[in-house]
Amino acid sequence: MPITKASGQAVAPAAKGDLVVGSATNDASVLGVGSNDTVLTADSSTATGLKWAAPAGGAGNMVQIANGTLSGASVTISSLSTYSELLLFIEDSYNATANGTTQVRINNNSTTNYDQFGFTISNNGSGGANPPVRRLLNGQTEIEAIGTLTQNRADAQDFFTIRFFNTKNAGFTSFDVLSYADGASNADNEIYVAKGIYKVSEAVSSLVIYQTGGNWSGGTYRLWGG
User: Fold this and answer.
1) 35, 74: one domain
2) 82 lies in which domain range?
3) Which of 121, 151, 146 lies closest to 134 in space, CA to CA?
4) Is the separation of the CB atoms in 201 and 44 below 8 Å?
5) Which is it for the CA torsion 166, 170, 171, 176, positive or negative?
6) If you placed Cys at 226, which of 62, 70, 156, 220 could pair as Cys (CB 3.0 to 4.6 Å)?
7) Are strands 133-140 and 114-122 parallel, antiparallel or unpaired?
8) Among 164, 192, 146, which residue's Cα sits nearest to residue 87?
9) Does the structure show a pLDDT above 50 at 201?
10) pLDDT tens-digit readout, 66-82
Protein backbone atom coordinates (compact mmCIF):
# COMPACT_ATOMS: atom_id res chain seq x y z
CA MET A 1 0.00 0.00 0.00
CA PRO A 2 1.57 3.38 -0.97
CA ILE A 3 2.69 5.67 1.83
CA THR A 4 1.49 9.25 1.32
CA LYS A 5 3.60 12.37 1.80
CA ALA A 6 2.27 15.43 3.61
CA SER A 7 1.66 17.02 0.19
CA GLY A 8 -0.61 14.18 -0.82
CA GLN A 9 1.80 12.68 -3.31
CA ALA A 10 2.33 8.95 -2.93
CA VAL A 11 5.74 7.39 -2.34
CA ALA A 12 6.34 3.68 -2.12
CA PRO A 13 9.32 1.34 -1.98
CA ALA A 14 10.14 0.23 -5.53
CA ALA A 15 12.96 -2.27 -5.01
CA LYS A 16 13.96 -5.02 -2.65
CA GLY A 17 15.28 -3.57 0.61
CA ASP A 18 13.98 -0.01 0.05
CA LEU A 19 13.06 1.94 3.19
CA VAL A 20 10.60 4.83 3.58
CA VAL A 21 12.11 7.56 5.75
CA GLY A 22 11.50 11.20 6.55
CA SER A 23 13.48 13.79 4.61
CA ALA A 24 14.86 17.20 5.56
CA THR A 25 11.69 18.83 4.16
CA ASN A 26 9.37 16.82 6.46
CA ASP A 27 8.28 14.66 3.51
CA ALA A 28 8.57 10.92 3.17
CA SER A 29 11.21 9.58 0.77
CA VAL A 30 12.68 6.26 -0.24
CA LEU A 31 16.15 5.21 0.90
CA GLY A 32 17.49 2.49 -1.40
CA VAL A 33 19.05 -0.63 0.05
CA GLY A 34 22.78 -0.44 0.81
CA SER A 35 25.59 -2.69 -0.35
CA ASN A 36 25.99 -6.16 1.13
CA ASP A 37 27.16 -6.20 4.79
CA THR A 38 26.64 -2.45 5.30
CA VAL A 39 24.56 -1.16 8.22
CA LEU A 40 22.07 1.70 8.57
CA THR A 41 23.91 4.64 10.13
CA ALA A 42 22.82 8.09 11.32
CA ASP A 43 24.32 10.96 9.31
CA SER A 44 22.92 14.47 9.76
CA SER A 45 24.60 15.66 6.54
CA THR A 46 22.27 13.58 4.32
CA ALA A 47 18.73 14.58 3.30
CA THR A 48 17.19 11.70 5.23
CA GLY A 49 19.57 11.78 8.20
CA LEU A 50 20.54 8.19 7.38
CA LYS A 51 23.05 6.35 5.22
CA TRP A 52 24.38 2.85 4.61
CA ALA A 53 27.96 2.36 5.82
CA ALA A 54 30.45 -0.34 6.75
CA PRO A 55 30.13 -1.41 10.40
CA ALA A 56 32.52 0.26 12.81
CA GLY A 57 35.57 -1.82 13.64
CA GLY A 58 36.07 -3.28 17.08
CA ALA A 59 37.84 -5.99 19.04
CA GLY A 60 37.74 -9.27 17.16
CA ASN A 61 36.78 -7.51 13.91
CA MET A 62 40.22 -6.63 12.54
CA VAL A 63 41.06 -6.80 8.85
CA GLN A 64 44.41 -6.58 7.08
CA ILE A 65 44.88 -3.04 5.76
CA ALA A 66 48.54 -2.95 4.66
CA ASN A 67 51.46 -5.23 3.84
CA GLY A 68 54.76 -4.98 2.04
CA THR A 69 58.53 -5.39 2.00
CA LEU A 70 60.90 -3.47 4.24
CA SER A 71 63.34 -1.40 2.16
CA GLY A 72 65.24 1.86 2.34
CA ALA A 73 65.83 3.73 5.59
CA SER A 74 62.21 3.50 6.77
CA VAL A 75 58.69 2.48 5.79
CA THR A 76 55.63 4.66 6.48
CA ILE A 77 52.09 3.27 6.66
CA SER A 78 49.52 6.07 6.33
CA SER A 79 45.73 6.71 6.35
CA LEU A 80 45.13 5.01 9.71
CA SER A 81 43.01 7.60 11.53
CA THR A 82 39.72 5.71 11.04
CA TYR A 83 40.83 2.69 13.09
CA SER A 84 40.41 2.28 16.85
CA GLU A 85 42.93 -0.53 17.19
CA LEU A 86 45.98 -1.61 15.16
CA LEU A 87 48.17 -4.72 15.08
CA LEU A 88 51.58 -4.50 13.39
CA PHE A 89 53.55 -7.65 12.53
CA ILE A 90 57.16 -7.49 11.25
CA GLU A 91 58.99 -10.63 10.12
CA ASP A 92 62.57 -11.53 9.09
CA SER A 93 63.82 -7.94 9.15
CA TYR A 94 67.56 -7.33 8.94
CA ASN A 95 70.34 -5.03 7.73
CA ALA A 96 73.15 -6.82 5.91
CA THR A 97 75.76 -4.06 6.29
CA ALA A 98 75.42 -2.95 9.93
CA ASN A 99 73.93 -3.96 13.24
CA GLY A 100 70.74 -2.17 14.27
CA THR A 101 67.49 -2.45 16.16
CA THR A 102 63.90 -2.24 14.97
CA GLN A 103 61.97 0.86 16.08
CA VAL A 104 58.49 2.30 15.40
CA ARG A 105 57.18 5.86 15.64
CA ILE A 106 53.59 7.09 15.73
CA ASN A 107 52.82 9.92 13.26
CA ASN A 108 56.60 10.20 12.70
CA ASN A 109 56.78 11.86 16.13
CA SER A 110 60.36 11.72 17.44
CA THR A 111 59.79 13.75 20.61
CA THR A 112 60.19 12.20 24.07
CA ASN A 113 56.56 11.10 24.46
CA TYR A 114 56.96 7.31 24.61
CA ASP A 115 57.08 5.54 27.99
CA GLN A 116 57.73 1.81 27.95
CA PHE A 117 58.26 -0.93 30.53
CA GLY A 118 59.07 -4.57 29.88
CA PHE A 119 61.60 -7.32 30.29
CA THR A 120 64.18 -9.10 28.17
CA ILE A 121 65.14 -12.78 28.20
CA SER A 122 68.28 -13.76 26.29
CA ASN A 123 70.74 -16.63 26.12
CA ASN A 124 73.54 -14.14 25.55
CA GLY A 125 74.78 -11.94 28.39
CA SER A 126 74.98 -8.87 26.14
CA GLY A 127 71.26 -8.88 25.43
CA GLY A 128 69.76 -10.12 28.66
CA ALA A 129 70.09 -12.72 31.36
CA ASN A 130 68.23 -15.22 33.47
CA PRO A 131 66.33 -14.02 35.48
CA PRO A 132 64.91 -11.48 32.99
CA VAL A 133 66.36 -8.00 32.68
CA ARG A 134 63.73 -5.34 33.42
CA ARG A 135 63.63 -2.33 31.15
CA LEU A 136 62.02 0.97 32.14
CA LEU A 137 62.22 3.41 29.23
CA ASN A 138 60.77 6.83 30.07
CA GLY A 139 60.81 9.73 27.65
CA GLN A 140 61.85 7.72 24.60
CA THR A 141 61.71 9.12 21.07
CA GLU A 142 60.25 5.88 19.66
CA ILE A 143 58.72 2.51 20.50
CA GLU A 144 61.44 -0.08 20.94
CA ALA A 145 60.27 -3.15 19.06
CA ILE A 146 63.23 -5.17 20.32
CA GLY A 147 65.61 -4.82 23.25
CA THR A 148 69.38 -4.30 23.19
CA LEU A 149 70.13 -7.14 20.77
CA THR A 150 71.47 -6.22 17.33
CA GLN A 151 71.39 -8.49 14.31
CA ASN A 152 72.48 -8.37 10.67
CA ARG A 153 71.93 -11.91 9.40
CA ALA A 154 69.96 -12.66 6.25
CA ASP A 155 68.86 -16.02 7.71
CA ALA A 156 67.50 -14.48 10.91
CA GLN A 157 64.27 -15.96 12.23
CA ASP A 158 62.79 -12.96 13.98
CA PHE A 159 59.38 -11.36 14.45
CA PHE A 160 57.97 -8.28 16.13
CA THR A 161 54.34 -7.58 17.02
CA ILE A 162 53.00 -4.32 18.40
CA ARG A 163 49.31 -3.89 19.24
CA PHE A 164 48.02 -0.32 19.56
CA PHE A 165 44.89 0.62 21.54
CA ASN A 166 42.76 3.82 21.54
CA THR A 167 44.29 4.91 18.24
CA LYS A 168 41.28 6.79 16.87
CA ASN A 169 40.47 9.07 19.81
CA ALA A 170 42.64 11.91 21.03
CA GLY A 171 43.99 11.51 24.56
CA PHE A 172 46.65 8.80 24.54
CA THR A 173 47.56 5.56 22.78
CA SER A 174 48.73 2.49 24.66
CA PHE A 175 50.66 -0.39 23.11
CA ASP A 176 51.85 -3.94 23.80
CA VAL A 177 55.11 -5.30 22.37
CA LEU A 178 56.06 -8.95 21.85
CA SER A 179 59.18 -9.77 19.87
CA TYR A 180 61.79 -12.44 19.23
CA ALA A 181 65.12 -11.89 17.50
CA ASP A 182 67.68 -14.39 16.26
CA GLY A 183 70.83 -12.34 16.53
CA ALA A 184 74.32 -12.21 15.06
CA SER A 185 75.01 -15.84 15.95
CA ASN A 186 72.90 -18.93 16.56
CA ALA A 187 73.59 -18.56 20.29
CA ASP A 188 72.41 -14.96 20.42
CA ASN A 189 68.60 -14.94 20.75
CA GLU A 190 66.26 -12.62 22.60
CA ILE A 191 62.61 -12.41 23.66
CA TYR A 192 61.26 -9.00 24.59
CA VAL A 193 57.84 -8.26 26.17
CA ALA A 194 56.68 -4.75 27.07
CA LYS A 195 53.79 -2.35 27.59
CA GLY A 196 53.83 1.35 27.00
CA ILE A 197 51.99 4.58 26.32
CA TYR A 198 52.23 7.33 23.70
CA LYS A 199 51.37 10.47 25.64
CA VAL A 200 50.41 12.87 22.82
CA SER A 201 46.72 13.79 22.47
CA GLU A 202 46.19 12.88 18.83
CA ALA A 203 44.76 10.10 16.71
CA VAL A 204 47.20 7.68 15.07
CA SER A 205 47.29 8.56 11.37
CA SER A 206 50.55 6.80 10.44
CA LEU A 207 53.23 4.42 11.67
CA VAL A 208 56.91 4.66 10.70
CA ILE A 209 59.06 1.51 10.90
CA TYR A 210 62.81 2.04 10.76
CA GLN A 211 66.09 0.25 11.39
CA THR A 212 68.77 2.06 13.37
CA GLY A 213 71.64 0.40 11.48
CA GLY A 214 70.79 1.96 8.13
CA ASN A 215 68.75 0.73 5.19
CA TRP A 216 66.64 -2.42 5.32
CA SER A 217 68.04 -5.41 3.45
CA GLY A 218 65.07 -7.69 3.96
CA GLY A 219 61.88 -8.34 5.86
CA THR A 220 58.13 -7.92 5.51
CA TYR A 221 55.36 -6.18 7.42
CA ARG A 222 51.61 -6.63 7.78
CA LEU A 223 49.13 -4.34 9.51
CA TRP A 224 45.59 -5.07 10.69
CA GLY A 225 43.02 -2.48 11.78
CA GLY A 226 39.69 -2.60 13.55
Assistant:
1) no
2) 63-225
3) 121
4) no
5) positive
6) 62
7) antiparallel
8) 164
9) yes
10) 999 998 989 999 999 98
